[in-house]
Amino acid sequence: MAAKIRKGDKVVVLTGRDKGRTGEVIQILRERDRALVRGVHIVKRHQRQSPTQDGGIISKEASVHLSNLALADPRDGKPTRVGFKIMADGRKVRVAKRSGVEIDG
Predict the structure, then answer these.
(1) pTM
(2) For the segment 36-71, what is each residue's pLDDT rounded down to a tens digit?
(3) What's the DSSP call for residue 45?
(4) Predicted confidence band at 105 (pLDDT cuts at 50, 70, 90)?
(5) Of 32, 10, 5, 36, nearest to 23 (Cα)?
(6) CATH class of 10-75
(7) Max CA-CA distance within the chain?
């Protein structure tokens, strides 16, 4: 099945601590159905010092389950579901259900 949310997409968080926040998908973890979203679900991690990095407490993004994310509608930025449409030239494109706008050009 084609991916409804892909790397580089603008998404809205639907539930949890960061509900309502938007961000860009940095990475998709397909085998675990999770995604890393820039600026969302920030956690603190203790990092040991190494020859290349300083030690200390660092903040980084933790993964969010795909069911808790919705694509942001390109027209108004509100959460939307994703559908698929076959174009006349045979391409399969994603379409925002809310506004009917094509997501990939």
Answers:
(1) 0.85
(2) 999 999 999 999 999 998 999 999 999 999 999 999
(3) E
(4) low
(5) 10
(6) mainly beta
(7) 56
